[in-house]
Amino acid sequence: MQSRSIYKIPNGKLLKIFLEYNEKTNLIYELKITGDFFAYPEEAIEIIEKELKNALLNKEILIKKIDSIVKKNQIEFIGLNPEGLTQGILMCLK
Amino acid sequence: MKEKWRLLITEKNSAYRNMAMDRAELVSISKGNTPPTVRFFTWKPRAISIGYFQSLEDEVNLDACKSLGVDYVRRITGGGAVFHDKELTYSIVIPESHSQVSKNIMESYGRICGAIIKGLKQLEIDSSYIPINDIIADGKKISGNAQTRKAKTVLQHGTILMDVDVEEMFSLLLVPNEKIRDKMISDVKQRVTSIKHILGKDISFNQIADAMRIGFEEEFNIELNKGILTDEEIELTNKFEKEFFSTKEWNHRR
Fold first, then answer.
1. Domain edges within chain A
2. What is the CA radius of gyration of chain A?
3. B57-99 confidence digits (pLDDT tens)
4. Do B6 and B35 touch, CB atoms closer than 8 A?
5. Contacts A14 to B, Cβ<8 Å
6. What is the phi-psi region of residue B32: left when phi exceeds 0, alpha when psi lies from -120 to 50, beta otherwise?
7. Neighbour count for residue B198 (Cβ, 10 Å)
8. Interface with A, mutate which of B49, B50, B53 (most A CBs under 10 A)
9. What ranges make up the beta strands (E) of chain B?
10. Is B252 inside a domain boundary?
11. Quick check: is B254 in a domain?
12. Which of A30, A31, A33 is nearest to A14 (CA)?
């Protein structure tokens, strides 16, 4: 199943998500994170997209996973945060 | 004695070449081959630049760009889509280790925007920095800015609006929902201003560049000396223009 969402991060930027996921298992098949936010280093977003492949679409699990990728890769977000990113991804669920 | 930085003025380059120049300067300055550099520039043809993370097809009306002769390019910095028309665009490239630049990204935005604010003051325009990346005058946005850090070097570029045609801008940018296009246009008209609008008269690129030069010199307590790109930077500019910024792979990558 393919889906999109647009989510304005509170006090942040506009996040646009494209998500392809398995409806039966609720696992992420493909994720594209776009928008007018800032992330340092910029390649960080591609790392997150890759590492969230096959992740379960569950709020706690996604926040924890994104938090750990952010720490591991020393990613700095501006206008975006793990909670907002998770919210944007989950808004794609029909 | 004041530290000497380089000033480049490069008018009327394509979107691809402008973005390639910024990146070439970043490489050369990261290697210590050239001093910190401030560049003032314009775009010919007019162009849309989109932020590194934006989807080109989601943000830009490619057919309208084609029919109006407007180029489009993906930046290496984050942030939003910008229509580069009647404006002065600046870039600053400086090592992250330089004492004038904070390691903290938000602080360094504020500092660099301070130079633009001092420049606008020269034109008798009062303005202030509004985080994350805007400068406002009369309560409206007059400048947008975007920063990246690569190879321990800071690149920030931004626009200073000389005049703005919101209707034309929205004919080139896509809106999430067509039903709210008119509302978005009126909202943006309420939120965006320009030097012409505030002063009630046209100010030339050269006048604004002179004011901005003073703004940077005052903010960073430096002397800006007019220079040119080095041979290494010209070679890198040609390479980045051809291999990155003018390619479909780069511009359509999201």
1. 2-90
2. 12
3. 999 999 999 999 999 999 999 999 999 999 999 999 999 999 9
4. yes
5. 80
6. left
7. 20
8. B53
9. 3-13, 37-43, 47-50, 71-74, 82-84, 87-95, 128-130, 134-137, 140-150, 153-161, 222-226
10. no
11. no
12. A33
Query: What ipTM, to 2 d.p.?
Result: 0.94
CB of A33 within 8 Å of a chain B CB? The answer is: yes
Distance CA B111, CA B154 (A): 12
| Residue in the block written with tokens 């919210």 | A87
How many residue pairs from chains A and B have C-beta atoms closer than 8 A?
Answer: 55
CA distances for B78 relative to B74, B147, B196, angstroms: 9, 7, 28
Q: From CA B236, how far away is CA B16, in angstroms rounded? A: 13
- Percent of chain A, pLDDT > 90? 96
Is there a contact between A78 and B146 if contact means CB atoms under 8 Å apart? no
**Residue A70 contacts B, CB cutoff 8 Å:** no
Residue type, B15: A
d(CA B15, CA B5): 25
The answer to whether residue B65 is domain-embedded is: yes
CB contact under 8 A, A36 and B58: no
* Separation of alpha carbons B158 and B134, rounded Å: 9
Q: In the numeric block, which tokens belong to residue B146?
A: 């975007």
pLDDT in tens, B153-188: 999 999 999 999 999 998 999 987 777 788 888 888
Peptide bond into A41 cis (omega under 30): yes
Q: What is the DSSP string of B110-165?
A: HHHHHHHHHHHHHTT---EEETTTEEEETTEEEEEEEEEEETTEEEEEEEEES---
CATH number of this structure's domain A2-90: 3.30.390.50
- CA nearest B56 in A: which residue? A34
Place of tokens 């944007």: A88
Q: How many CB atoms lie within 10 A of CB B102?
A: 16
> Are B116 and B92 in contact, with CB atoms under 8 Å apart?
no
CB-closest option in B58, B106, B148 to A42 = B148
- Range(s) of the domain holding residue B29: 3-247
* pTM of the full structure: 0.95
